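Take just one protein record:
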Amino acid sequence: MPTNRPAFDFFGAVPKRISYDNSRVAISKILEGHRRKLTRGFLELKSHYLFDHHFCNVRRASEKGVVEGTV
């Protein structure tokens, strides 16, 4: 029977820092450098679970592979 529990609850821990690709679920606008305007939902998730985020650089395919490879 499926549940709506977040992955953090399933694994029993919250990482200190999470690396992401530039998903529209988390980012509403990409700014200069590493700056991002985050969506309200992502900000609420971060404030509840208290983790830090890291987003891949735009047009850097090599970074995306590193993020996916660590899973």
Remarks:
- The chain has a mean pLDDT of 81.
- The chain has three helices and four strands.
- The CA atoms of residues 3 and 10 lie 10 Å apart.
- The beta strands are 17-20, 27-30, 36-38, 52-55.
